[in-house]
Amino acid sequence: MFESLQKQQKLMDVWKKGKNEIKLKIDEQEIYEIMKMHPEYHKFFDSGDVFNMLNKKEKTNPFFHIILHTLVKKQVDEREPGIVRAAYHHLVNNKDIDSHEAYHGFMIILADEMHDMMKRRGKLNMERYKSRIEKFLE
Fold it and tell me: What is the pTM assigned to this prediction?
C-alpha cells in the first residue's frame, strides 16, 4: 500500500514542479502534459494531499486515469504492440476522432484487460488485447 502511495505522491510532485515551472525530466514532462489535459482533476492535483484525494467519493481515480494515459501513449510512441499505434493513427487520420478521445478508447480496453489479468492472477492476454483493439476500429 505504501509503495502505491509513493507512486501517487510522485505524480503529485510532477504536477507541483510543472506548475512552478521547475525543469522536468522527459518522462515527467510527458506525464505533466497529460495531467494538464484533465482540468477535472486539477483541484485534486493542486491540493497536494494524496490521502485527501483517495478519501473522496469520486467516480474515477485520477492517478489510475493518468497512468493509463501514460501507458497508452507509450504503446503508441514505442509501437509496442504495433497495432496500438496503427489503430491510433487510423482513428485520428481516417475516422476524424480526436487524439484524446482515441487514447480514452484504448484506455478502456486496457483497463478492462488489466482487471481481467488481476482477476485471473495471470499475465496480460496480449492476443485478446490486440483483438479487442481491432474490433474497436470497426
Answer: 0.81
Residue 49 covered by a domain: yes
Contact in structure between 124 and 114 (CB atoms under 8 Å): yes
CB under 8 A, 24+ apart: contacts of 66-69: 66/11, 66/31, 66/34, 66/35, 66/38, 66/41, 67/11, 68/107, 68/110, 68/111, 69/34, 69/37, 69/103, 69/107
Written as nine digits, the cell of 132 is 479487442
Taking only the tens place, the pLDDT of each residue in 65-75 is 899 999 999 99
Are both 48 and 86 inside the same structural domain?
no
- Looking at the domain assignment, is residue 105 inside a domain? yes
What's the number of domains the chain is made of?
Answer: 2
Which residue range forms the structural domain that includes residue 138?
Answer: 79-138
pLDDT reading at 57 higher than 90? no
66 within a domain of the structure (yes/no): no
